[in-house]
Task: structure prediction
Amino acid sequence: MKVIVLGAGVTGVASAWYLRRAGHEVTVIERREAPGLETSYANGGQISVSHAEPWANPRAPLQILRWLGREDAPLLFRLRADLEQWRWGWAFLRECTPARLRHNIRRLVALGNYSRNALQQLRAETGIQYDQLTRGILHFYTSPEAWRGAQHAVRLMRDAGCALETKSADECVAIEPALASTQRRLAGGTYSPADESGDAHRFTRELAALCAARGVAFRHGATAEAVMVGRDGRLSGIRVHGAGGTEMLGADACVVCLGVRSAALLRPLGIDLRIYPVKGYSVTLPVLDPAKAYSVSLTDDEHKLVFSRLGERLRIAGTAEFNGYDTTLNEMRCKVILRRVEELFPGAGDSSQPLLWTGLRPATPSNLPYIGGTRCAGLFLNTGHGTLGWTQACGAGSAIADLVSGRRPEVDFNFCGTRP
Ligand SMILES: Cc1cc2nc3c(=O)[nH]c(=O)nc-3n(C[C@H](O)[C@H](O)[C@H](O)COP(=O)(O)OP(=O)(O)OC[C@H]3O[C@@H](n4cnc5c(N)ncnc54)[C@H](O)[C@@H]3O)c2cc1C
Result:
């Protein structure tokens, strides 16, 4: 089949890889000059199956209310006169019940496990390099109250099939000695040895090169303007604008992987996706003193920050801001991250040379992505991966290739059917 993939972020490139492997003729349409330059550019780097608790949980509404208006809050809702934001917020509240949390965690863990296996297979098969480390993820707590409150989520994750180990402060430092200077403030942690980390942008670039070598066509600098559907309800083509002007590209199938831009493209077709942009930040520092730098990927619960070692760089990412599509870099939020790094790992990274970045997570209220078909025959979705797009990329790519090929994916997930 002739398949068009829209978007060359980590999701689109992984989809193209598995579609090509399934024998399809694949073209990727990307408006930027190279793959992986938007949300997949400088994320937290975690392949995080076992720490996948969604933002929507029973504690969230109160916590968000407490943080309202606080410029340095880890999760900040800037209320706007924006119907899209309010509808998303309402749907988010409905996901905050204990029953929905349990359901969502089960689905996220199933997809995450499947995806991590797919990534490991891809690595073994191709030898792809992306500053990967397979040393697990340690989620540490500096507040005893938060540590006690986390036990319920830990039980839920374990019930869903995660190998999550509870650790004392001393054990946390034994796993990651760079935490030694913070030891007396640690309340405890959870460690998932099977989790991993790596540079999502480098992975996307390298996998795109492997795709191209196997015959996938990449059209960079080309913007998808509209999805065309015939009277019979089937996909008839994609209207694309590039350097050569506007053209119609025909295809048997199209997979939409446009991150935060997915909903706008599909709205004219009556396909209503609940994807809202949630802004996050990252700081990347060159390693200054390797003895003080971490190499196990870490999550700091108090500040909702993740830390990954990417070769000779330290990546620190996090914070969530609900403020529309604005991508202005807020210095204050970056300074909060830098302060915390210096506090936890003094002298580990060179703070005089920070690389600051901001990106928009394509977030759904439940944090479950849209993967599967739509009411238009031939039109498929692989988008809305929110906080876990890097973790889920290979599994979601493999699953969408199965669905496009008319096969049932091996993972138990609520794939979109005829109506998303
Ligand atoms: C601060 C931060 C930290 C994060 N940390 C982690 C982490 O540790 N682990 C994890 O698993 N996930 C993490 N994530 C989430 C992860 O980065 C995203 O879920 C993932 O990158 C989304 O990938 P994507 O391919 O769907 O979207 P994108 O990477 O945004 O790709 C979409 C592509 O579509 C292109 N495009 C858009 N519109 C058009 C159009 N009309 N025509 C053609 N092309 C178009 C864009 O240029 C872009 O290249 C983090 C995100 C942020 C912001």
